[in-house]
Amino acid sequence: MSANWPERISAFSRSPSQFLCSTTSDIFLAEVLHELRDDRASDHIKVLLLSPLLEHPTLLCPSVSVGEETALELMSVFAQCSPKSLPLRCHLLLALTSVLLCSCCVSSHTSASQDFLDLLLQMAQDTNDAQAGAALHPLRTTACDCLRELEACLPGLLSQRLELLSTLRQQENSRLHQAYTGLHALALRNAVYLLTQQKGSGAGDLKGALGSNEGFVWGEGSDSAHPNSESHSDLALFSPLTLGPMGKVPSLQTGQDCKELRSLLSSLLEESYLLTSLSQAALLRRLVEVLAMVPAVSPTIFRAQLLRLLGTCKVCLLHTTLLMKAAFTDSLFSAEDEAFLLKRLVGLSQHPLLSTPEKLFYMDCILHFPENRPISSSDESLPVLLTPRLAAALVPTVFNDSVSMLARLNLLSLVYLEEGEEDREGQGGRGLAYLYDHLTSLLHIVENQASREMVVTFFRASFLFLLHFCHVERYSEDLSQRLCDLYLRRTRLAPHLINLADRTQDRLEESGWAVALLRALQRTITEAPLSQLTLQDLRWHLRILARVAEEGEVLQKATLNFLLCVITSSSSALCVSGDWRLGNGVLGVCRRLLLHPSLDSLLTPLADLLQHLTCHYGETDIQDHARLYYTLLTTLSQEKLAGVLAQRGTERGRQAKVRSLSAIMGETEELTSGLTVHQTERPLLRLVKHEPDDCKPDHKPDSEPACETESSPGQGGIEEYRAQFQSSSFASEITLQYHLTHTGVHDPHFDKLFSIRLHFDLTDSHYEEVSDISVPCLFRTRKPPTVTLRLKPKQPYHTTLRASAIFTTEDGLSWHSPLADLNVAFPEVFLPLLTPLGWAREKKQRVFEGIWGEICSGQSEGDLTNAATSLFCDQLEDSAVGELVEKHFQRYLVSDLDKGRCKVLFFLPPQSHVLLKVITEEDAIQVHIATDNWKLLPYVNSYLEDITKESHSTQQVNGDV
Amino acid sequence: MAFLLAKMSVRALWIISYEKGESVAVRFSRRYPTVEQRAKCMAGSLYVSVPEDGTVLQLLLTEMGLSDSDKPYMALRDDCLHQQRSPALELHVEGPSSGRVLWPVLVISQGSLILACLAMVDAPADPRPPLASLFSVSQGLTLLAGLQAFLCGSGSKPDREGLTSRLAMMPSILLQICPLGTPLDIPQLGASSASAMPTPAGTQKQPAWKTGVHRGRAVVNVALTEMVRSMQYGNRNRQDLWDVYGTVTCKCEVEGVLPNVTVTLTLPPNGSPLMDVLVHPCVSSLDASILTAMSVEDCDSSAFSGPYKFPFSPPLEPFRLCSYTSQVPVPPILGTYQLKDDDNQLRITVSLKLHESVRNSFEYCEAHLPFFNRDQMGSVDVKVSSGQLEVSKEKNLLVWVLGQKFPKSREVSLEGSVSFSGEHPGPTDPLCTDLTAYIKLYFRVPDLTLSGCCVDQHSVQVYSSAKPRIVTSRELLSSEYFIWNSTGTAPVSSGHMML
């Protein structure tokens, strides 16, 4: 098994969901933990084994209890590790942090998380290697990192230990001081924040917090890290701390007296130079936040660092400077500083030594430049200081890569848009002329066999240009003419052109540019000499013409003439060839023409065209549909035609168009959407577990005649029992019954449902596929129908089924609706001992004893590899045992409860048995467990725990009464 | 109670190898579940979980325009509405209309390697905060760039075996630099661990960016490299352009936990000031005047022009101390290029002139004349006044090897004609159609800078007990040095032309 761990772990990381289909998370977790405890496994393998826990703790430890157990296991592995196994121990700390935080153990303040915190703090306190030596540096760093992550997820956890953190940071002289600084700064910032939230906090509280050295604070702050807590209003209130001068920052009124904080901040700042750029940026960022919350300390303490930060080549440090500027504006940055910073950003955005992502980021920073006195707060606005002259450094050129080019085009468009506003004629200045020239050089490149990427970039650039300058007719009209010329040379660009028309129409509805472009394209296509038309071109032309025909404002006569010429001209091989797809293309145009508002004037030529297709097109299918359209055109009024052809013909939503059946032909590519099954927004149906009568506890399960003749002595019973399994279908299924009902969602539209088909999907591979179940109807007013679900286990584990339903409503529409997941619990897989009819109790007991004996002996000899025995004990009153047996075991009893003893047998299809001998002594219950499938033991155990816990609680209730 | 949650973290990290048409695979990925937990809390109902690697890969390739490269148009990939103009991509997890978006996914790619990470949004998700306000973005970019430098090694493209072995080191690298999703450092490159000793316990705090201290002979190596770019059009209506950018690289082997070194750059009298100065974070202080000159605005003749002092405490590994740009009065080599189309035959005239201020001693100097969008070369009848001509008929390329020296006149010329009568079409380029053509120059001149900038050996100050050996060097390299055919149209390359 251990040999394939690397493979298994990489399979898990690649796709956890797929991996867990072939096993369950509990089994996998158990295996991982087992292997971690194995001394023979190498450290390398163990580090690998930790990665699922490190990266997907919520999958493996879905609950606090599992998380807690796992954490305890990992801590014991940690304790037993050889001191030399440093990487393993570091990874164990990380895995523990992930597991404890993600299974909410820390926020529930469990004992394991407390122990873990103590362990971390203890390791962190060994500054300057006083005890463990320099070899343990990595471990100590990791411990600090883990503490920092805990503080990050549970803000305030360390807020009462600031003095200790400060001392540790000051004491440490090795490189590790960085880890301590990060931890201290975060805890400090969180502590100050907490103070701002307490009413009436002042200088004294701040001083107290800085000198505090108490325990961990598990208090109020902790629940915010819980993923389910929703407190948007608060989040919204505090986030502007990061966003700049416009927002509110919570502040702590301290008066002028905060010497301690000031000296602490200066000492942190002084040492910031000793940190790596990334950590330095993070530290500065924390300090900016602290200062923003404590107005008594002037931000000028950053001054000494400022030049160093402004000159830096590191993007993270310069970014921090910008955020600093956003937070403190003119109290730290003069007008000259501001002008300098902006020019610096422009320079960096085109610096030959920087990488493209960095340059793009700086350009984004220009668009969101934190001005000292911002005029507007809109999304993307240009800083006032960005003059066209300054921005000229960033004009797009054909030498830029696509992304940079588009970013520059966007920026410069904004610049020239402002410039244009000052220009009276509204025709744009030299800058705009340059941008248009640039666009035409791109167009020129596209004409010359450009790569796919260039083509896409050109159309994006055109869209961007139009978005800003559509109103400058000189350019927008010229562009559409050039696009038409381009199209004639490169008809393959049709989808791009249609896309451009669609998007400009969506975004610039009033401008009418898109319609003008489509009209121009129509003209281009219809006026081009037919003699040069190739079939390939025609295919694209039909796509464009179909799109043009969607525009009510565009006259369609030219389109029809063109089609007639193409179809009827004697030189045309089209009709003869009978190309189905081309035929469809023609029909697609016709179908849209049938819906066109000017249909009246098109009647004759369109009828001619359809008739010609009907009679002469060399493809029967096309002929048929042309005939259909012809009939519709000649017999129906325009309104009816619109009703038949498109349910929502007037609505020009291209994405969400409801297709009617008559459109299928014209739009073969959208065939599937023609037969739409609608989707309900929320689950409308649910399955409610229903205990059928024959499954109810039966007080006389063995009421068969006791006078049965003893046909076979000795072990005969068990052989006869086994023989039943020779028929493969024997006892292979479990049957579950449910009522199908409506959910709470009340919509009269769904009161009466018909032809309901329930579909079930497996979420793991423990069961055979489940076949669909049909239910004729479901009325809200009537008794709910019963649904019988037959499951065929491959492995007798609990499972979850995804359920969905397809049904029809009264108005004939088909709907698809998901149902809540169906959970099949472990006890639901139990069946009683299945014996031939008429078996006596004694015989069953013999089978029981026989299997029991086999398991016990087989286990000791080691040949029955899957057999296992176990013992479960719990405290339980005598009376409670009776209740427990009656409630849970009655159906599975092999021998009745007698003097506190009984025997229980669960059969789990396909071939597993779990045998219980229940023994009660005074106030304790012992359950001896034997099974021929050891993998079931954990489930049996938790099942027994659940039912005894239940008994406890009922006892409790009885006691209280 | 809600809280402004800790930020500056990444939720997940991916390393992808992408070889066109061959194999695409996620080679390494790492998720940070505790950060994910915080992201979930921050985003509330707008939270979108990170899909499994396979899905992320597909979405990422679509967004980068790399998926289904055999299809000329795909709405998902090529919609003109998608304006990728920031370094952060959006991944539409359940299709474009679902509104379930993973953002911001930061991406850096080099050669066949794509590195991506999902930065945590540390502000309420609606309305979407501007990228520039998210601290995690610059952190993520720095982390990715550091990982890229580590994975690609010294070459521009990672070699297969090297990459595999470096990928295998990723878990231990991440343990050090980003154990729980908050980037702390970038991988160390090429630190000479041989001479580095663990720091003795002392009162002086050791910088976190220094893995030990140097023991042994003190050596300081300062190398100044200048690159010159040029676009020459030979056209009266169009101004020729050229500029220079330089970097100062140091390798300092000096004893001490935090030794002080100062490097001073000086310019000749009347030298134009160094602009856009960027410094390494180990520079401990800067004079404001060093930063004032910038290329994006007009130069002030009274501006500060040195000396430029950079006091710093060096890390163990070689590092780029600073970089600058400069505007020099003349290009080192001035050229003209003329083509005449003569019935499927091109008549070529080229002349190159080395400026008198430039030392006539090259390590190498070559002029490349490529011809695009034509059939393969047939007969080549070209004479050069100096140097040799190499003809590569498959690539439609003439390489004019000028060697180490220009002749005394400092002028060389090339004349002749080339016919394109081959059977196969030659290489194509969408930009260079018709008579749009260029010459690209490649040269290196040792011991020269165009800006005149230099590091005097005696100006390097090292405050340490032992007297160090100090080595300085400088060189000039060409970069994007184009001379366009003056009889054809040439593309615009800079906004300064229109002003």
Automatic annotation (TrEMBL), chain A:
Keywords: Protein transport, Transport. Residues 257-641 form the AP5B1 middle domain. The keyword Ribosomal protein does not apply. The keyword Protein transport applies. Residues 752-822 form the AP-5 complex subunit beta-1 beta-barrel domain. Residues 690-703 have a biased composition (Basic and acidic residues). Residues 847-947 form the AP5B1 C-terminal domain. GO terms for biological process: endosomal transport; protein transport. Pfam families: AP5B1_barrel, AP5B1_C, AP5B1_middle, AP5B1_N. Residues 690-716 are annotated as: Disordered. One of its GO terms (cellular component) is AP-type membrane coat adaptor complex. Residues 30-100 form the AP-5 complex subunit beta-1 N-terminal domain. InterPro entries: AP5B1, AP5B1_barrel, AP5B1_C, AP5B1_middle, AP5B1_N. PANTHER family: AP-5 COMPLEX SUBUNIT BETA-1. This is AP-5 complex subunit beta-1. It comes from Hucho hucho.
Automatic annotation (TrEMBL), chain B:
InterPro entries: AP2_Mu_C_sf (IPR036168), AP5M1 (IPR039591), MHD (IPR028565). Keywords: Membrane, Protein transport, Transport. CDD domains: AP_MuD_MHD. GO terms for biological process: endosomal transport; protein transport. Coiled coil: none annotated. It is found in: Late endosome membrane; Lysosome membrane. Residues 217-485 form the MHD domain. One of its GO terms (cellular component) is cytosol. It is a peripheral membrane protein. Probably part of the adaptor protein complex 5 (AP-5) a tetramer composed of AP5B1, AP5M1, AP5S1 and AP5Z1. Belongs to the adaptor complexes medium subunit family. PANTHER family: AP-5 COMPLEX SUBUNIT MU-1. This is AP-5 complex subunit mu-1. It comes from Hucho hucho (huchen).
